[in-house]
Amino acid sequence: MASNQTSTTTTGLSSETALLEALIPGYGLVSRFFISYLKIDLNAYLQVLIGFALVAGCIRFIYPRVLDSLSDLFISTAEIRMEDDVFTYMMYWVSRQPHMKQTTRFLASVKYKTDPYWSDSDDSEAENDDDENGTIAQPGSTAVSFDEYWAKLMSRDRYKKIKFTPSKGCHYFWYKGYLMRLQRTQEESRRFATNSERLWLSCLSRNPEILKELLADGQKAYIERDGNRTVIYRAKRDYDRSFDWVKCMSRSPRPLSTVILDQEQKQGFVDDMREYLHPHTRRWYTDRGIPYRRGYLLHGPPGTGKTSLCFAAAGMLGLKLYLLNLKTNGLDEEGMSSLFAYLPRRCIVLLEDIDTAGVTQTRGKTVMPEDDPPKIDSEKEDVPLVASGNPGPDGITLSGLLNVIDGVAASEGRILVMTTNHPDKLDPALLRPGRVDMSIGFAYTTEQDVRDLFESIYKYVRRDRPRTLISTGKGDDLSQREKQTQSSPIEGGNGKKIVQKEKKNEEIILRANISDLSAAFVQIVPSGEFTAAEVQGYLLNHKDRPDDAIAGASKWVEEIRKNRDA
Ligand SMILES: Nc1ncnc2c1ncn2[C@@H]1O[C@H](COP(=O)(O)OP(=O)(O)OP(=O)(O)O)[C@@H](O)[C@H]1O
Description:
Elements: H1 15-23, H2 27-38, H3 46-74, E1 76-81, H4 85-95, H5 98-102, E2 106-109, H6 124-130, H7 146-157, E3 163-166, E4 169-175, E5 178-186, E6 197-203, H8 209-225, E7 230-237, E8 243-251, H9 263-277, H10 279-287, E9 294-299, H11 306-317, E10 321-324, H12 333-341, E11 348-351, H13 398-406, E12 415-420, H14 428-431, E13 438-441, H15 447-458, H16 478-487, H17 495-512, H18 514-524, H19 532-540, H20 546-565
Parallel strand pairs: 7-10, 9-12, 9-13, 10-11, 11-12
Antiparallel strand pairs: 1-6, 2-3, 4-5, 5-6, 7-8
Adenosine-5'-triphosphate (ATP) is lined by residues 258-261, 302-308, 419, 421, 442, 532-533, 536.
Subcellular location: Mitochondrion inner membrane
Domain AAA+ ATPase: 292-446
Transmembrane segments: 42-63
């Protein structure tokens, strides 16, 4: 028998086929099929097949490595995680680019649950739309009635704005002459993955600077959207139960002058903050080894302006405001520490109504009588300060709170403002210098406060819509002036414009008489009895008619007194 003849095994398969059968189960059957029906002996092509398989294997092994090496050589890539603010910056930036309008694959959403970009959404854009952007003519402007204006506004508001962002997968665009690729991917492996995504931003260049430029542009666009508005963050529990700050809104800054408070106290508060924020002060603290932190306590009855002052100060200093309620569900010392650890270098943290969280002298499970407060050295004890009789697994202890406020790991540079309606109930440990450096008391309105509130409501404000002029009974005859103005030779043909200007001046003049009206109002509203919120609330019911406000003031005072007695 020739030596190159294929040997046959007892099963009827050639030795080669038997060998391949062992390596590739089913090969014998396929081989027999080919020989019987197609007259093709697969074994004759064996070497070619093996060659192909080897080449394919090599390519499969080498290709990704070559691709990686080429990527390293010619492509720079930035990875952006969803938990990070940069994700929001990028989505904001991309969604506003012209190429986004052309893309054929996008995610359309009105709710943040479907698109994480929305998790940062606030109503500030919508607020701007409502305002004075002229999309809907304002009532009174061009003979548009309020009903017409309102119907248009309502029909527009029925439709929530749909936002479009790039969908999962790759998107290509040009940026400053470079070809960019944005890849949006969904993370599969995370345990609590509800919406865990990543962005991969690549550019065809070895120089990563272009990516950094784009990311900086995204950040700039996003931050500039807020302009000089006061940005407010609040603590939010994440899906993995950790806490993080999320932007909840941005508001036009409140002028400090609109907060009615003793001028000296107000100025003192702001000056103290300015002094603290001065770069020299930081160095001064560091040189002396003093932790660079500042704390304020604003106390007084509800509705006297504590939150308003804090908000106005944040607006004036251009600081972000971080709101934290100690009663936030699930908030414990660990959560609070991590929140404080992620505060920016300069900001205001507002802990509102700190007494309601149980950080009072009435601690633990034993409720002490109000007139016999316990004398406990809270610096040494670690008694849970969850509300008496309401202990739970979560909650902040006094020592926990103190640790977070000024412990070793506490953040530096922040301004802490705590507000309370009951300063007497707070533990002295919380109030000691270093934790509370300045305390401001808010009280019921004085005569001057009532006067200021009255004047601030009725004073001439430039942006106010034109309103019916207030009669002062001092013989101002506008129509007479209109006639005079129109016929004035100096004004020439510009009569209409001049009349409008005159009307404005007229309003200013009339409003100057508001001080007479406010004098009448303070005669009726006694000082030391009402909060600023109460007075403001009453005046807002007569916001165009100060004379009506004066006429109804006695009745209102009586009503409030009766309600308090009841
Ligand atoms: N001193 C004030 N000056 C100007 N407005 C005030 C003042 N006090 C209260 N207001 C008005 O009353 C409302 C409530 O005020 P704010 O929330 O600042 O009171 P608060 O003292 O923080 O109340 P709470 O103790 O209930 O938190 C706001 O609309 C604010 O404009």
